[in-house]
Specification:
Strand content: 35-45%
Number of strands: 9
Shape: elongated
Oligomer: single chain
Radius of gyration: 25 Å
Distance between the termini: 66 Å
């Protein structure tokens, strides 16, 4: 049986000290990772989860013939932001409230995220047919919001 080089504690501590000193050169990137991890400590407080507060597809309507191209209207709320959407077979239009510019990421199950911009009035549009569940991540100058997943 071969003897392990760390048969005594003094030798083990000396080798560990050497290894830590050698790794010290990479502390710049480790420090950056640490700062990034520390910034995530308040992510739950910084990111508002907006719940579906209105969905026209769930509202009772009088008996009438509806067109398959009829728009579905949804509203997601989480103070101080909310998002209103109108979904048709070929596009999604919406508005951030209170109005203002925003970056919006439309996340669709099984697909790459689509990035769009809301204008100064908070309006945005995705000219694309969307099928399956989706959610929105919205970032304004004052807050960030993510909607719950909704099936389309």
């Amino acid at each position: 049986m071969t003897e392990h080089p760390w048969h005594d504690d003094q030798r083990l501590f000396a080798d560990l000290s050497d290894a830590i000193r050698e790794a010290a050169d990479g502390l710049g990137s480790i420090g950056e990772f640490g700062r990034g991890a520390y910034a995530w400590r308040t992510i739950d407080e910084d990111l508002l989860v907006a719940s579906l507060s209105f969905d026209s597809s769930l509202e009772p309507v009088p008996e009438q013939r509806s067109s398959p191209a009829e728009a579905r209207v949804m509203a997601f709320t989480a103070a101080p932001l909310s998002v209103e959407l109108e979904v048709t077979p070929d596009r999604i239009v919406g508005q951030i409230i209170p109005p203002g510019p925003a970056e919006i990421r439309v996340e669709m199950a099984g697909e790459v995220t689509v990035r769009i911009e809301a204008d100064d009035a908070g309006f945005f549009q995705l000219s694309r047919a969307v099928r399956g569940p989706l959610r929105l991540r919205c970032e304004t100058a004052s807050a960030r919001l993510v909607t719950e997943w909704v099936p389309l």
